[in-house]
Amino acid sequence: MYNALGISVQGGQATVETAAQFQPFFPGLIILLPLIGFLINGALALRHAQVSASAVRLGGELDLDEGGHLPATHTLPSYVAPGVMLVAFLIASVNFARMLSVELHDPHVIEYWTWIATGAFTVEAAIQLDQLSILMTMIVTGVGFLIHLFSVGYMRDDAGYPRYFSYLNLFIFFMLVLVMGASYPLMFVGWEGVGLCSYLLIGFWFSDREKSDAGKKAFIVNRIGDVGFLIAMFLLFGMFGTLDFVPLFSQAADLEYGSRLVTAVTLFLFLGAAGKSAQIPLYVWLPDAMAGPTPVSALIHAATMVTAGVYLVARSSVLYALSPIASATVAGVGVLTALFAATIALKQNDIKKVLAYSTISQLGYMFVGVGVGAYAAGIFHLMTHAFFKALLFLGAGAVIHSMHHSLHRTNNHQDPQDMRNMGGLRTFMPITWGTMWVATFAISGIWPFAGFFSKDEIIWQTAAFGGAAKAPYPMLYQVYWVIALVAAILTAFYMTRMMVMTFHGASRTGVEEVKHLHESPPVMWIPLIALALFSVVAGWINVPEALRETFIGLGPLTGEWLHHWLEPITEQAHHIQELNLGEVAEQAPFGGGEVTWALVSTTLALVTVLASFQFLRRQNVKVAAEDTELSGLSKVLYNKWYVDEIYDRLIVQPLIKSSRFCWKVIDARVIDGVVNGVGWAARALGFIVSMFQTGTVNMYAFVLTIGALIILGVSVF
Amino acid sequence: MTTLLDFVSYSDWVLHTLIWMPILGIIPVLWADEQRVKHVAFWWSAVVFILSLGLWWAFDPTVGGMQMESATPWIESWGVSYSLGIDGISLFMVMLTTFMASISILASFNYIQDRQRPFYALMLILEAGVVGVFLATDLFLFYVFFELTLVPMYFIIGIWGGARRIYAAIKFFLYTALGSLLMLVGILYLVYRAKMFIGAPTFAYSDLLQVPLSGTEQLWLFGAFALAFSVKIPVFPFHTWLPDAHVEAPTPGSVILAAVLLKMGTYGFMRFLLPLFPIAAQHPVVVTTMLVLAVIGIIYTACVAAVQSDAKKLVAYTSVAHMGFVVLGIFALNLNGLQGGLIVMISHGISTGALFLLLGMLYERRHTREIQEFGGIARVAPWFATAFVITALASIGVPGTSGFIGEFLALLGAFETHKVLTLVATLGVIFAAYYMLPMVQRVFFNPLDKQENREIEDLSKRELAILAPLCALMIWIGWNPTPLLDRMEPSVQVVLERLDEAILEDQARVGDEVNEPQVVDGGQE
Predict the structure, then answer these.
(1) Residue B115 — left, alpha, or beta (φ > 0 → left; ψ -120 to 50 → alpha)?
(2) Chain A to chain B, count of Cβ pairs less than 8 Å apart?
(3) Do A193 and B398 touch (CB under 8 A)?
(4) pLDDT of A701 strictly over 80
(5) Span A44-64, mean pLDDT?
(6) Measuring CA to CA, which of A133, A222, A545, A573 is 20 to 30 A from A418?
């Protein structure tokens, strides 16, 4: 019921017609399969944990290789978990192909059962198939499958192997509920569900206090955002009387542009998005989340879950288009986060921490995209980022895996994730090295890698939006545009730094240790190659028309394909924008068109990569144990601007202190003081109390009760 | 199923049976020898539960009023009758009671070692009392049952409790008895007014509904009833008996206390307070006061819970927070709020009951409840940890569990009428994570660094049989609450219609004097 003119029309009729055109192919199975995988792996995990528990109880650990072959609880998940993902991906592909072949204008909603129905509020357990949800489903199942595959190699030796896969499958289930759910409450089920899985997987090695803490922190910080989501739902229900997407958005078009209610709704929704997608001020959980196994970081904390916030804004594009304040906030928070996280990434030594801050920064770009009304561009960057960031994390995982093995074999207790202990890994891990450079080019925005097209699109749209005829805050958007460009340069720098410290220069791992370094097994590098491929070509599906002449076309897939594909989702929002803001600008604030600035930004990125490569390669990096104390700005950046410490001082500690005050003073002294006073007075009467203290009184009262009941019984009958 | 139930004329005898059968159970329990008594008690309560299951089908979900009604005169000169009935509000409370009673008797097998016969007899009396509270349609009978529940609970805490059991038992008794005394006065006044209006004294609920009361009378009576129920729920600041009672009570006592006894308070609000005193219940000051207390309960007790070192006390405090959501839902005075409140009541009964069961099982193994004494238990007791985590998640209202449905609807309803207060209440979602997750972490995760914890056994088959249905219910209600909501809705509608009618009548009365009718925020969606 999306309508080009923004007028709500004959609802039911249109849906029926489209249903005849688009034939979904068992879409429910896409969600169901990971759930089945979870149940199977979960059962195996419990069985496995039971066996290892008896070993732990005796003071030891379970020896996995006892008798030369692994138990079934350890081998079955290797097939079940990636298997269900592959089938789910194939089913999703069929649906995608079918949607490609028809003109699906209205979302295709399939209802399964009535989930919640009070007299005043109804929500169905229903999934919605449309251009956006099918694209997200493809990313989730596709990248998800590759990461499941990688995990088979990465987690093989872990004692919690089946448990790991049960959580991973459960995560995919909830993620699919999130993207396919046809209403906000159902999306919220997925929303908190993925948060739960993230909690379980960050704290996967729960015997480690620090990792367990990290999981808890993620959950609690996410819940702060979730409150925003909940309140937004309450507001939306008050406005529309429904929380289903289709009827809600078709009514939304009638709302007044810039009304306070819409602004409130969208800002609350964005609070939820900021929690899940790690934006200022709620980003603090994501760096800590790196405590989880590295494939988890790739899947949950880079490719899928953390992008849910961007999906949420894109899904609600109609509402955001109606609120210039909320949109400016989204873009502003996004661009600030992009810059802020990039500065921190400059000085991190833990390879995963660099990638974590880089993820936060890139998520910031996506929010800039959806904040300037370029919803397709935001989703585009979400998609390309899913490929290259998953690749970077998996590559980092391969490095850590190799480092861990070599340090473990030589009884070295150095940190396997600290890049200061790496260097020169290129010769030992050529595939990892090569694919990670591809991803680095992609994230830095170098032509023709995927990140160039998606990031440049966002930066350009920011400039264009600020230059729109009736842009609400033109200056603001110009500032955003400049910051976005600066952050892009920083990105190219810190990524090159990471690559140089890890793969180039002399090896700092140690003479004995080096002998044990090795490339990963095929089950791990095949996903790397696949993702590297996508990190190149994924950008080609949405080449801007203006760049088309400078880019050698690749047939039907070029020419803003994604933009057009998502049009049924975004057209209503674009229509509102055009009505209220006028045409967007053709020129950037300092002159120059789209092509010019694309050239400028890719040149800047390339120059930064090359220059910093030359510069950093010659730098003498000390191993972690011998490294000197930092000072000045470097120290502040290394310590992440002390934000965690500030939060602790300003929020966490006062909360704990006031909680104690409530308990020790208000509860124990004030309220109980009054109560005990009354009780003391009663005790002074003494009569009842002394009676209760004789040992036999229970029989008395017992008889009393029985007596009362007998009287009651007799008088009734 | 329905045919079978009709064939045995189930509807005619089931309500009586659910009260009297547990009482009759005292005889075999007291008669059985010490070794067998727990099995006798369990199977007896299990049969009661199975009998109550028929209500699911025998109950007509399209009817809003009382069903399966029966009335026998009892003390005719006072207008007291033994009359029972069931509707969509009490239906699930009754089923929850029979279910949790058998569960907690099954959970007593190891915990209760001495004086078993009186213990199980008291549990059965308690069950009868609570079922009676939910089924009584005569206020005298209701009051008798309401007070009757105090006695067995008092002894269960006082005899089988922990070190400070006497203090806890007396505190429990005095707190709640004092609260309900005022209610008794209120009931008597109500009957007195009924006598003036009808001509004869009557305690029958349906008669009392007809009694016209002035606004001032309603406010006073509301106060008297509300105090009794608020202590029971408990609403802040009447909650301090609860942590003590829970900490000292034996596991089955805590389970029953949390799962069903507290619900008598919120049930009282829905059954008696709103319909009997509709004007007072809709008075803006009253509504705001109750909502403010509910919100304080949600946030304040969550904070207090978070800093507890005793796991059982922590869970006890969370009960107050959860019941805050129920009160919030009730005083939303609309369908979403009331139905949400009812779901929270069911969900809290199951999940908090399960939490107390799990902590009891932990206590049986380690003889401590101090959180810092544990750590890393998930490694030696994976089934235990799994059950605990599922329960904890349901308790803090993660979507996909029963807790979410209830809290969501209660908040959704309350938001329609009171935006700011609900906004604050929604923060409870964060606080829930703040109290629950650190506890889960410190007990089940973290290093397994104590030898005593290394020796903790995983769940036994009996324990698994106790927890599995509870966990299944939490998840089932989380994904399919509609069958429950459908059965509640007509009865909740009746309550809301009564509220609206009262406002209209009042306006009609006032309307003669004032030209401009007041716009009142009623219960309509």
Answers:
(1) left
(2) 213
(3) yes
(4) no
(5) 82
(6) A222
